[in-house]
Amino acid sequence: MSEFDIPGTEVLEARQKLVLDHFHDEVAQDWDATLSTFPHPHYELIATMTVHDGDHAVRDYYQATRAAFPDQRHELIALRHSADAVIVEFWLLGTHLGPFGKLPATGSPFRVRMTAYFVFDAEEKLVCERIYFDSLSMLKQLIGGVDKKNPKNWPLLLKLVRGLLTMAGDPADPRLTNTTAPTLRPLP
C-alpha cells in the first residue's frame, strides 16, 4: 500500500468507530475511556499553538476546559477518511462558566466550527488529535455576550483585556512551528 492508498473498508470502519467513541466519551467526560483511544495521548491545538502530550498533560487539558465550559459538547458536520487520518468537521458548543486560561468566566455561550484530524500510524494506532479552529470567533462570542455599557461589567472587561494581553505573549510550542516540508511524490 502506498502513501496515497486509502485503507480498506474494515480499517476505515474501525477508525471511524474509535473516533466517534472518542467524541462520545469526551462529552460524557469519561477521561479514562477517552484516553484509552490513544496508546500515548497527544493533542495539538493549532489556534493556540499549544501541545498537550501524555496522559497527565491531556487530563489537565480536559479538566481545564471542562472547568471553563462544563457543558461542552459537539455537533458533527462531516466525517472524512484519508490515507492516514479521520478528518472531522464539527461545531463545538458550550457556556463560559469558569476561567478559560487567563480569561475569567463571562457566562456567554459559544458555537465554533472546528476541524480535527485524528492521525493514525502504520499500525492503526491513534497518535494525534490535531484541532484547527478560529480562536477569534470563539473570543468574539465569549466577550461579545458581556454588556459593555453596564458599569458593573467594566471590572470583568478589564480582566478579560488583561487576560488576552497575557495570552498573546505566550510562546508557540516549537513542535508546531519547527516543521519541515514533505517530500512529495507523483500521484500514481
Describe this protein with a few key phrases:
single chain, 188 residues, alpha+beta, six-stranded mixed β-sheet, 6 strands, 26% strand
Quickly give the structural class: alpha+beta
What is the end-to-end distance?
12 Å
**Average predicted local confidence, pLDDT:** 94
Low-confidence stretches: none
Cα-atom radius of gyration: 18 Å
What's the number of extended β-strand segments?
6
Amount of beta strand? 25-35%
Largest sheet: spatial strand order? 2-1-6-5-4-3
N-to-C order of helices and strands:
HHEEHEEEEHHH
Biggest beta sheet attributes: 6 strands, mixed
Instruction: Please tell me what the overall shape is.
Output: elongated
Helix run count: 6
Helix content estimate: 25-40%
How would you concisely characterize the structure shown here?
This protein is α+β, with helices and mostly antiparallel strands and 188 residues long. Helix content is 36%, strand content 26%.
